[in-house]
């Protein structure tokens, strides 16, 4: 039996009035841990660091630097409002203020002067309600995770049975799935023609693992023949496309998208864009995009993998053969995606190879963790986040570089301890473009040039290096900024900010 003391909830009180914060603290500190913020800027900074730890925000409207509505805007921007409830406590009691607060996601609105019992009761009710919602969400997430894990495991087992019989590397299925997802994500960024989103890409990736399931019906002596096929043997081999499609037609739940994509892929992943593929000789966009992408991934992996009838080609040789049309015709836009994703494909294929020996260990570890019912999804997430925070605090304390973060909305520069000490800035600086001390270190033109270069980056190529001259402690200094743009998980991704470090060059020559 666990004897751990029941966890206390944490409340963030954001109010510029010291007296108001003191009153609320005295009312609630017996039952809750209280964190105080003197203005909206401090409140957002605390939420950035501790949003997973905060159970409730008590928020004033009229505050310096950032008012309560600006805080709500930030909470909506970062989706904190979905998991951290807000009770607004303010002397502003006009209908328009109250309506605006509710429209921006507050759970409750209390006008001053307030009744202490009412505040305490509403705080208790709100925290209990959200705690219950979090538990229910965690249970649902865990059930979904388990279902997806089982589905993926069954697909993987069936795919590896085919691979085992075909005497091919067990990595083929994994490579096809990985490359399919990379190509589809690249295609999604180029066009909306195929109505791709993350869920669809995940489904097609899973379905791709079944592309050769029809080979179960091909005689072993044909399937594993080391030499070139005779015309009769090749005709038998080509039947695996139809056999796979027939198998998918016999699967229940034909309305499920996964079954639909699996049918398309099994049936037509050997079709070619110019109509010279098999089994039906489809031309161009007659071939479903799921089958087009898997066809390209299948050819690439066949070229770069060792087979009983050939050695493995290099990544560069495989790309050249595909682009020269030596492996059949593919959609030009997909070939663009292949070229643009070339570095990522090569890296991911290498990672998969390295991880093959680790796969069983990881699966066993995951199974053991999931058997512990106390480690529900929310708890695991919190533990991982706390571990990452501790690592970041530790490494930043050791670094002699000036480490920083910048968020676009709200516009805020955050420095780690070394930067605060060296530059003489606050830890958090709102709207650095108009901050006098920041402008003494870096001009508007320099900041604009750096911002322009960052906005021209992409999630695949986020890195920027920038040199600039400045003054520090009254002496001229040259700095190098090494940073990466940060992108949202939306589709398409949105540029949301920067992480990086600033290094004094100390007489070193700038190199490009």
Short descriptors:
512 residues, alpha/beta, five-stranded parallel sheet, 19 helices, disordered N terminus, disordered C terminus
Describe this structure in words.
The chain is α/β, with parallel strands linked by helices and 512 residues long. The protein is built from 19 helices and 11 strands. The chain has helices spanning 18-28, 40-50, 68-77, 95-103, 116-166, 171-190, 198-208, 220-223, 231-249, 257-268, 289-304, 315-323, 332-340, 342-355, 359-370, 377-398, 417-423, 436-441, 444-455, and strands spanning 10-14, 33-37, 54-59, 86-90, 108-111, 402-407, 412-415, 428-430, 463-472, 475-487, 495-504. The strands form 2 sheets. It has a 6-stranded antiparallel beta sheet, with helices on both faces. It has a 5-stranded parallel beta sheet with strand order 2-1-3-4-5, sandwiched between helices. Helix 6 (171-190) runs antiparallel to helix 7 and helix 11 (289-304) crosses helix 12. It is elongated, with a radius of gyration of 29 Å. The N and C termini lie far apart (62 Å).
- Amino- and carboxy-terminal Cα gap: 62 Å
Helix tally equals 19
Helix content: 40-55%
Described by strand count, sense and barrel closure, the largest sheet is: 6 strands, antiparallel
Strand arrangement in the largest pleated sheet: 8-7-6-11-10-9
Evaluate the radius of gyration. Answer: 29 Å
Portion in strands: 5-15%
User: How many strand units?
Assistant: 11
Flag low-confidence runs. 1-5, 352-382, 508-512
- Structural class computed from helices and strand pairing: alpha/beta
Which series of helices and strands comes N to C?
EHEHEHEHEHHHHHHHHHHHHEEHEHHEEE
Broad shape: elongated
Quick check: average pLDDT? Answer: 82
